[in-house]
Amino acid sequence: MKNWEAMEAFVEVVRQGSFSAAAIKLSVSASHISRLITQLEAELGTTLLFRTTRRIRLSEAGELYYQHCRGLPEALSSAEEVISTLNQAPIGSFKLTCATTFGERYIAPLMNDFLLNHPKIELDFHLTNRSVDLIEEGYDLAIRMGAMKDSSHLSRRLCDRVEYLCASREYIDQHGMPHTLAELNKHRCLIGSKSHWLFQQDGQRKEVKVSSQWRSNSGLALLDAVRKGLGIAQLPDYYVSDDLASGQLIPLLTQYQYPYSGVWLVYPKVRQSSPKLQSICDYLIQRFKQDPPFAK
């Protein structure tokens, strides 16, 4: 396939940020990578990469070429997988990412069960609250919360979740309870990785921007702060359902509570025909339907 090896080398150099790192990823020498890029530039009649001793930088033509090529290695891998796995069990590497706590509590146990029945799957499971670039970082599947904003990917709904605004009894005794959304700016608001809270007002979705002197990208740290009376926070049901049921935390502004938001299985369009991906998505959705792991 004309220029395929060179194109793959070029994409990996951009992803890894250096010739040597790309060479390691592709199991070839750095000099071989350099020759492929030089040949590709000669074929195209333009410079794709500006090289210095410390870094590489895309030219305007290189940026354009990369945007058109960045998903092709995964598309080829997916096409090969479709053929190779006909009438076979899922096999090969699978890279998955999920928010840390949700992944630890719910996804990891299910995926471990899946692997018991599919031992030829090589799982690379990354837990992070950072929104990763699926194509750039080579992920097959991401599990994401809330509204889907990236139309360049495909998604399937895994389950619903409810977010609760809540505080401890100690905080309410000292500072009172807000009765309207406008009163939130008079309270100590504790925020996680987002600075907007989600509500419903007059039947419409409403996002309220909150400011805070306390912020963390850890849901467990946020939960601990709320339990200790440091302020008010909005947290998903899988963090606070037990505390709300026991009375340790008190729900607030329930008249404005948004009914539910989604948890989504998100994957690149180039991976949609992958039997391995579809098998894992079907499995996760079925398990969540059979045994919902947290109360709605």
Largest sheet: 5 strands, mixed
Strand content: 15-25%
- CATH homologous superfamily (4th level) name of the largest domain: Periplasmic binding protein-like II
Number of contiguous helices: 10
In the sheet with the most strands, the strands line up as 4-3-5-14-6
In short:
This is LysR family transcriptional regulator. The chain is built from ten helices and 14 strands.
Summarize the structure in words.
The strands form five sheets. A five-stranded mixed sheet has the order 4-3-5-14-6, covered by helices on one side. The chain has a three-stranded antiparallel sheet with strand order 12-7-13. It has ten helices and 14 strands. It is elongated and about 70 Å long. Helix 2 (19-26) packs across helix 3 and helix 6 packs across helix 10 (275-290). The chain starts with a helix and ends in a 6-residue tail after the last helix. It has 296 residues and is α/β, with parallel strands linked by helices. 40% of the residues lie in helices and 24% in strands. The mean pLDDT is 87. It has three domains: 1-70, Arc Repressor Mutant, subunit A (Orthogonal Bundle), CATH 1.10.10; 88-161 and 262-290, D-Maltodextrin-Binding Protein, domain 2; 163-256, Periplasmic binding protein-like II (D-Maltodextrin-Binding Protein, domain 2). Belongs to the LysR transcriptional regulatory family. It holds the Pfam family HTH_1. Keywords: DNA-binding, Transcription, Transcription regulation.
